[in-house]
Specification:
The chain is elongated and about 90 Å long. The longest helix is centred in the middle third of the chain and has 41 residues. 6% of the residues are buried. The protein has a domain of 78 residues. It is an all-alpha fold and 112 residues long.
């Protein structure tokens, strides 16, 4: 009885180790496997970069409008609204920073 349990455990672990190789192979349709997963990751980061660019334009615009309103109508000095401008530019710069990390991924030049 004990030999069957040990043998079944060994068989189970060997099967688990071999199943990783099976999942890494490309599917007959050509969309699965590692290449498909790599393409999904690249697409995710490209979409994320596009989203950051759109949000950064909005954030910088709002920061400049707010600072301009404060200077023009609330009689604030530039030093009073400098934190808003600096914060807006840093948040807006997130798209550029993401672009540096994903620069080689555009145009299908992926190397996964």
């Amino acid at each position: 009885m004990e030999n069957k349990t040990v043998l079944s455990l060994v068989f189970f672990f060997v099967l688990m180790m071999l199943s990783v190789d099976v999942y890494a192979q490309a599917a007959p349709g050509g969309t699965g496997g590692f290449k498909g997963a790599c393409d999904n990751v690249v697409l995710f980061f490209q979409n994320f970069e596009t989203l950051l660019k759109a949000v950064s334009v909005l954030v910088v615009t709002v920061a400049i409008v707010f600072a301009g309103y404060q200077i023009a109508f609330a009689h604030k000095r530039l030093s009073d609204v400098a934190p808003v401008l600096i914060g807006g530019l840093l948040i807006g710069g997130a798209a550029a920073i993401a672009g540096w990390f994903t620069a080689g991924w555009t145009g299908g030049a992926t190397t996964c």
